[in-house]
Amino acid sequence: MPVYSEKVMEHFMNPRNVGEIEDADGIGEVGNPVCGDMMTFYIKVDDNHLSDVKFKTFGCGAAIAVSSIVSEMAMGNTLEEARKITPALVAEQLEGLPKNKYHCSNLGAQALNKAIDDYLKKQGKKVKSKRRGKNEKE
Amino acid sequence: MRRAYLDNVATTPVLPQVLEAMLPYFRDAYGNPQSIHEWGDQAREALDDARSKVAALIVAQPEEIIFTGSGTEANNFAIKGLTLARQSQGKHVVISAIEHFSVLHAAKTLEKWGFEVTQVPVDRYGLVDPEEVGTSIREDTALVSIMHANSEVGTVQPIAEIAKVVKKRGALFHTDAVATTGSIPVDVKELGVDALSLTPNQFYGPKGVGALWLKKGARIIPFLDGGVQERGRRAGTENVPAIVGLGKAAELAKEEMASRMAHLSALRDRLIEGLLSRIEHAILTGHPTQRLPGNASFCIEFIEGEAMLMLLSHQGIAASSGSACTSRALKASHVLTAMGLPAEIAQGSLLFSLGLENTEEDIDYVLEQLPPIVDRLRQMSPLYSKFLKGQQGGR
Questions:
Q1: Looking at residue A5, what is its pLDDT?
Q2: CB contacts, 8 Å: A27 with chain B
Q3: A1/B310 touch (CB, cutoff 8 Å), yes or no
Q4: Low-confidence ranges of chain B (pLDDT < 50)
Q5: What is the pLDDT of residue A32?
Q6: Residue A96 included in any domain
Q7: What's the pLDDT score for residue B394?
Q8: Catalytically annotated residue among B262, B325, B343, B380
Q9: What is the ipTM of this complex?
Q10: Is residue A137 part of a domain?
Q11: Which pLDDT score is estimated for A137?
Q12: Contact present, B310 and A61 (Cβ < 8 Å)
């Protein structure tokens, strides 16, 4: 087993915001079961703010902890703020991730971004995604 | 908190009698077996004694045993040393797709050295078809190496049948018996092989030691150049305490084999039946009957292995997994893949490898702890919710 930080273990053991939002305003799904991890993020948007964020994740301890902390970091953010949640920031908030688990933090940030893209698309707005190409697994 | 070690595939604990046998050779009888004096004699006698015990376990001659530093070394020695010794006859090697990395990667090195390697596939139970081995053997095949059993899925191969095919085609036959020696009967004559690898850290002996059995008359190119140890085939001062431990572990394994097998297979069946009846969408991997006594390996659908291991560990339970996320290389187990399991199913790999110290209470504890862990992870899994929605939609 990889050596995880206390923060990763804490989020893995007590993940926040697990679940689905039935009437979500945006849904973002990244990864696939073949490559190991799969994350689906659900968001509710109220007055340009993320009023609710939920996730479902198929994957390892790091993937689950990443999803949990991303949901926590994004909750209540404006869409613009939420866009600024980068993989590096996620890893930092988790007090580090083992090197071979860094892709999990990419997935978390991507899933959230994709949910925002989806929301904007549904709103008929132009998508201003700052999607990070590196390590993208779709 | 209750603790249950069900990861004997990683390594087994050292039995107290084995440790007791080893201890004097660290402090009192510390001589070098090659020395010509009392200290040397003591150590040499200990080596001879261990050699006889290992030979007795696999029904071989003591002089056919070459001590090595691990099972991995024994496999490397066999794969590289035997092919190099026969390369004038041919530069082709046959192995199975589910070999241990110490065989697979050694074969890759041979490819870099200009040899050709054929990998024989396995069926969905992880079984090698002897016919398939036969058709893979060519005029220039120097060596065939098929493992006796795979510790990840527990499947035991029909080595004696494969040996007949190999013999008919005139190739040399090595088997990696690391998973079987000391666990189930291993008789080199009955198996019909020419070389066999073993290590005691799979049968309650120490780590850092192994052995290659090499049939009298078979030529091998030494790996390590140096002194005359092991009749010049494996140079380096012998690890006397570890070899003594190997000997003692071999002696005990031979004596207690029947009772150990009965104990382990009863626990294994209790775990397999209990788990499959308590957890839906769980698959037993490996062969249902031709399997190692202590192996209970599964794939739990819709969830991932490492997450299960972490939650089990939190409850004091040690197990292992072949999921991509648990491997450093982030690749799913080549064994599960070779058996045709789809990648997302292989991600749910969960292996309980039982040992002598396990009890019915351990098994019942696992059966009590695992279902809520599976439930918890499935509640988080988008694959599971998709599956449930698909079911509802289908009605």
A1: 95
A2: none
A3: yes
A4: 395
A5: 81
A6: yes
A7: 56
A8: B325
A9: 0.88
A10: no
A11: 41
A12: yes
Give the CATH number, domain containing residue A40: 3.90.1010.10
Query: Searching chain B, which residue's CA lies closest to the CA of residue A54?
Result: B380
**Cβ separation of A34 and B344 shorter than 8 Å?**
yes
* pLDDT score recorded for residue B188: 98
A35 as an active site residue: the answer is yes
Q: Which domain holds residue A37?
A: 6-120
Contacts of B371 (CB under 8 A, 6+ apart): B278, B279
A6: its two tokens: 């206390």
Residues of A in contact with B306 (CB under 8 A): 1, 60-61
- Helix, strand, coil percentages (3-state) for chain B, rounded to 5, are 45, 15, 40
Total count of domains within chain A: 1
Decide if A63 touches B, using CB distance below 8 A: yes
**pLDDT number for residue B391:** 86
Report chain A's C-alpha Rg in angstroms: 14
Please indicate, yes or no, if residue A136 is contained in any of the structural domains: no
Scored b (16 or more CB within 10 A) or e, A11-47 reads bbeebebbeebeebbbbbbbbebebbbbbbbbbbbee
Residues of B with Cβ-Cβ distance to A1 under 8 angstroms: 306, 309-310, 313, 326
Distance CA A51, CA A78 (A): 9
User: Does residue A129 fall inside a structural domain?
Assistant: no
User: Which residue spans within B159-253 are E strands per DSSP?
Assistant: 172-176, 195-198, 210-214
Tell me which chain A residue has its CA closest to the CA of residue B318: A1
